Amino acid sequence: MAILKILKYGDPRLQQPAEPVTEITDEIHRIVQDMLETMYYANGIGLAANQVGILKRICVIDLHHGQKPDEVLVILNPTVIEEEGEVREEEGCLSFPGLYAPVYRPRRVRLRGQTLTGEWREWEGEGLLARAFSHETDHLNGKLIIDRMSPFTRASFLRRVAKRQRHGEWEASS
Ligand code: NI
Question: pTM surpassing 0.90?
Fold first, then answer.
């Protein structure tokens, strides 16, 4: 297992759609283990493969920071198939470390995808889980939190990013 480097905003891979996983090989298992380890190390609750430079449709979600092993989600090829409502709440992303801003998300999300054994199934989430489903699926479609902010919030958020870039606190690509 290995802790992978998390790409920051500015790296083009974060804004590219990831490719479907067609075969669940040992390599896919290894990527998932590394992604989980990287997510826990970074103290995040979700991570998408393109955040570690791998353009495959894989995401991991754990709202409990490893405290409830039964509730760790590894989802391959996720698609949002239903969503309802809209909630605006402070949100962050490991690719914008240390920055938070209000982001619009559906209140309830129904997701379809594959487990690590290849079985297709559906998940339903509300609140924080709905937010995570939407956030990670967005990543795999090349979308970021700035794409779900109001224009004013987005502009001020990107000014905070630019300030960190100027101060050399933001190295996007490897
Ligand atoms: Ni993120």
Answer: yes
CA distance 71 to 139: 21
Task: Report the CATH number that the domain containing residue 27 is assigned in CATH.
Answer: 3.90.45.10
Domain annotation covers residue 174? no
CA of 84 to the centre of ligand 1 (A): 21
Q: How far is the CA of 5 from the CAs of 84, 115, 127, in angstroms?
A: 34, 24, 29
Residue 5 belongs to some domain of the structure: no
Band of residue 90 on the pLDDT scale cut at 50, 70, 90 = very high
- Which member of 122, 126, 136, 169 is catalytic? 136
136 counts as catalytic = yes
Q: What is the Cα–Cα distance from 42 to 16, expressed in whole angstroms?
A: 22
Distance of CA 126 to the CA centre of its chain: 17
Q: What is each CA distance from 117 to 28, 114, 128, 130, in whole angstroms? A: 11, 8, 26, 23
Output the six-digit token pair for 166: 């100027």
Give the residue numbers spanning the domain of 71.
12-166
**58 domain-assigned:** yes
Place of tokens 């990527």: 31
